[in-house]
UniProtKB/TrEMBL annotation:
Residues 1-22 form the signal peptide. Gene3D superfamilies: MFS general substrate transporter like domains. The chain crosses the membrane at residues 124-146, 184-202, 214-235, 241-259, 320-340, 352-374, 386-404, 410-432. This is Major facilitator superfamily (MFS) profile domain-containing protein. The keyword GTP-binding does not apply. It comes from the Eukaryota. Residues 75-498 form the Major facilitator superfamily (MFS) profile domain. Keywords: Membrane, Signal, Transmembrane, Transmembrane helix. It is a multi-pass membrane protein.
Length: 530
């Protein structure tokens, strides 16, 4: 692997590092401490305003959405200054009807404070995250078509431009529909640029480096996960924060002429002269020479067999029907827990910035643990996918007791354990799915599973908020139970490590993983976090 490949990998890595944009809603969409605005008390300090106008809840904290139903114009300035709230404890209470005042000690401005997405409107913040995840789904489907038809290079930069434009529009929250739509477009550009960039890199690096660079690409994503809380700690305004993160994408645009189209794509399009020109440019930058008798026509491309099979053919097989359901449930559960934990770090004990950074940091060893366990004959594919979800589920269920007993620090630790193992499962299930599906419906099976993950990703933003409002331990109960069920059912699937895999649905009917041909070492060919 030469200078050219490393250069492209580093540049495309910028996309990966800044692709953890789903996490920014932990800060950009955060709800600061707030209370009802009372015009008559505008000149009083925040502490005085709350003392005079805001009742206490059952925990002795000031209500965020209620105020005393008192006509303060009937009182003199001196009365308000010497206010004795005990004399008004029995006053009736009403909802805020004149907006809110926001404490800016932690967040200067957020989307929630700018658009008053609090109290009865707070679920709309979760819906913004859902719109982003819907964009991720659409982007993954759309850019697969675009990159095959128009090329990896054009598709990557088109989605980078879309992502940059959507980010800039989303930065300035004119109104709620504007934020929701631009957040959706940001999701489309996010997944599109991430996936096409990954494909471009994988098509120009040597085969023996693909697995390693595939993992490093995932590590780039985790680094970006940790970078968001670091930036948010120093930049407390949502507009300034998003503008800063947009800068690297501007930088990437300037390298349009540095990164070439994938020569593999040119060969697939039978554009041999253009493919040869890129091969020669790569050789020149790498300070190497192509053989004198080099003939582009002799380059052998891997041909993918055309298949007319559909998902209905997959479902006709009773055995493959149940295997597909188990795999789809695994993807659904894994994605639900991954994003439920990632998007609700504000519910953990301690500092939200540090907690979010740790949630990203645990993914880095998880990436390498997944590779080791997947190729270790003791665990293989099946036990790695199963145990990772079972352990994550158990850790999540333990947090129910910790929440009820108010053991904040221990609760945070077990949450980190759950996040680490759910990340192992997320990285592993992609490999297991591609190996267990027969060749003629592999893309269909993988696409269906990925679709299930995107759907649960759209649900995840509502797990930590609305469910916790019903009963605080309900989110870990739902995620943990689903993970246990999914992990246990995964044990019913056949092991694929070191086995000969089926090519057709008919072969899959009889497949139990009993043949002796060895499956190649794991290679992560696509992101499972997007």
């Amino acid at each position: 692997m030469g200078t050219y490949q490393w250069m492209v990998f580093v540049l495309v890595g910028i996309i990966a590092v800044f692709s953890a944009e789903s996490i920014n809603m932990n800060f950009v969409g955060a709800s600061p401490e707030h209370w009802c605005q009372v015009e008559e008390l505008a000149n009083f300090s925040h502490a005085q305003q709350k003392y005079i106008a805001v009742p206490l809840d059952s925990d002795g904290e000031y209500e965020e959405c209620k105020q005393y139903n008192i006509n303060y114009t009937a009182y003199s300035l001196e009365d308000l200054i010497t206010w004795n709230r005990t004399q008004h404890d029995n006053s009736s209470i009403r909802d805020c009807d004149n907006g809110w005042i926001y404490d800016q000690s932690q967040y200067v401005n957020t989307v929630a404070s700018r658009l008053d997405l609090v109290c009865g409107q707070k679920e709309l913040v979760s819906l913004i995250s859902t719109m982003f995840m819907a964009g991720i789904l659409v982007g993954a489907v759309l850019t697969g078509y675009l990159s095959d038809k128009f090329g990896r290079h054009k598709a990557m930069y088109a989605t980078v431009l879309l992502r940059l434009a959507a980010m800039l529009m989303n930065t300035f929250p004119i109104n709620y529909p504007w934020v929701a739509v631009t957040r959706f477009l940001l999701g489309v550009g996010n997944s599109g640029s991430f996936l096409t960039g990954f494909i471009l890199v994988m098509e120009i690096v040597p085969p023996n480096m693909r697995a390693t660079l595939g993992i490093v690409y995932q590590v780039d994503f985790s680094v970006g996960f940790m970078l968001w809380p670091a930036l948010a700690y120093f930049i407390r305004d949502d507009v300034h924060l998003q503008l800063v993160v947009a800068v690297p994408l501007f930088v990437l645009l300037t390298f349009w002429w540095t990164i070439d189209e994938s020569p593999r794509w040119y060969l697939m399009q039978h554009r041999f002269n253009e493919a040869e020109a890129i091969f020669r440019r790569i050789a020149r930058i790498n300070n190497a020479e192509l053989p004198e008798d080099f003939d582009i026509m002799s380059v052998q491309m891997e041909e993918q067999e055309k298949s007319t099979k559909t998902c209905f053919d997959l479902m006709k097989s009773k055995r493959m029907f149940w295997r597909t359901l188990i795999i789809d449930l695994h993807w659904f559960s894994d994605s639900l827990m991954y994003y439920a934990l990632s998007l609700n770090s504000d519910n953990l004990f301690g500092n939200i910035y540090l907690n979010t950074a740790i949630l990203g940091a645990v993914e880095i060893p998880a990436n390498f643990i997944a590779i080791f366990m997947l190729n270790w004959r003791v665990t293989g594919r099946r036990y790695t996918c199963s145990l990772s979800l079972i352990i994550a589920g158990l850790a999540s269920l333990v947090t129910i007791y910790l929440i009820l007993e108010d053991m904040g620090l221990t609760y945070t630790i077990f949450t980190m354990v759950a996040k680490a193992f759910v990340s192992v499962g997320f990285n592993s299930i992609y490999v297991f799915t591609t190996e267990i599906m027969p060749t003629e419906v592999r893309n269909i099976g993988l696409g269906t599973a990925s679709m299930c993950a995107r759907v649960s990703g759209m649900i995840a933003p509502f797990i930590g908020g609305p469910l916790a409002d019903v009963w605080e331990p309900l989110p870990p109960l739902v995620c943990g139970s689903l993970a246990l069920v999914s992990g246990s059912l995964t044990l019913l699937l056949p092991e694929t490590l070191g086995k000969n895999l089926p090519s057709t649905i008919e072969e899959a009917e009889a497949f139990e993983g009993s043949s002796k041909a060895r499956v190649e070492a794991v290679q992560v060919d696509e992101s499972t976090k997007l």
